[in-house]
Specification:
Residues 124-221 bind DNA. By secondary structure, the chain is of the alpha/beta class. The chain is built from 8 helices and 12 strands. It has helices spanning 10-22, 33-42, 59-68, 84-92, 105-121, 151-162, 170-177, 186-202, and strands at residues 2-6, 26-30, 47-51, 74-80, 97-101, 126-129, 132-135, 140-142, 146-148, 168-169, 208-210, 216-220. It has a 5-stranded parallel beta sheet with strand order 2-1-3-4-5, with helices on both faces. A 4-stranded antiparallel beta sheet has the order 6-7-8-9, with helices on one face.
């Protein structure tokens, strides 16, 4: 999983990053809410961990801005024992869960494993971007007309649609869509991008996948 951590206490941040990296999570760490908002705009994350009390921009304000942009990433808030009102405000502002400081690293990693298991079992049945609708279960793509997709085409397009406007490197897409295929290489990403572009054109959708072979790609409407 790819995780964004916003925690202003540098020593605690280093400990948390080391713990998450020890179980092969990819972690970006920042020390204030403003930087968290900026990275969330640019990158796709599986989990965002936000401390509430941070300089420049606090975690609640950062969370509100992230949700206002339409980002539905799972957000875990870090709170102090006395911050009961902040916990309630965080949940009301769109947080999915919270951990109360001090917490054990085992508990944090257990929460993240639980989230990972749920992700493996659940994906939205239908995703919409502009005039484009993807029925994941039926592997059907609909705009002015419809067309069937293959399994990997569906996985790739679903990922791009859920993260509309965000750029992904070829290696990011390979790791996400072909994570269980040891024989897959970066050339396969370009082949499937080309397939999807042809199918988007065939159903006359205004949505496009932009990017060049070997570089980064994003879906725009």
């Amino acid at each position: 999983m790819k995780i964004l951590l916003a925690e202003d206490e540098e020593q605690l941040s280093r400990v948390l990053v080391a713990a998450m990296q020890s179980v092969n999570y990819d972690v970006d760490a920042v020390f204030n809410g403003r930087d968290a908002v900026e990275l969330a705009k640019k990158n796709s994350y599986d989990v965002i961990v936000l401390d509430i009390m941070m300089p420049i921009m606090d975690g609640i304000t950062a969370l509100k801005q992230i949700r206002k942009s339409g980002d539905k990433t799972y957000v875990l808030m870090l709170t102090a024992k006395a911050e009961i009102d902040d916990r309630v405000t965080g949940l009301d502002s769109g947080a999915d869960d919270y951990l109360t400081k001090p917490f054990s690293l085992k508990e944090l990693l257990a929460r993240l494993r639980s989230k990972e298991r749920r992700d493996d079992k659940y994906t939205p049945n239908e995703v919409e971007v502009g005039d484009l609708t993807l029925n994941v279960a039926e592997q059907e793509l609909v705009s002015h007309n419809s067309i069937r997709l293959g399994s990997k085409e569906t996985q790739l397009l679903n990922y791009l649609m859920l993260n509309e406007g965000k750029e992904f490197s070829t290696s990011d897409l390979l790791a996400h869509v072909w994570k269980d295929d040891e024989d897959a290489n970066e050339d396969i990403v370009w082949i499937y991008i080309s397939y999807l572009r042809q199918k988007l054109q065939s159903i006359q959708s205004t949505a496009q996948i932009v990017g060049e072979k070997g570089g980064s790609f994003s879906l725009i409407r």
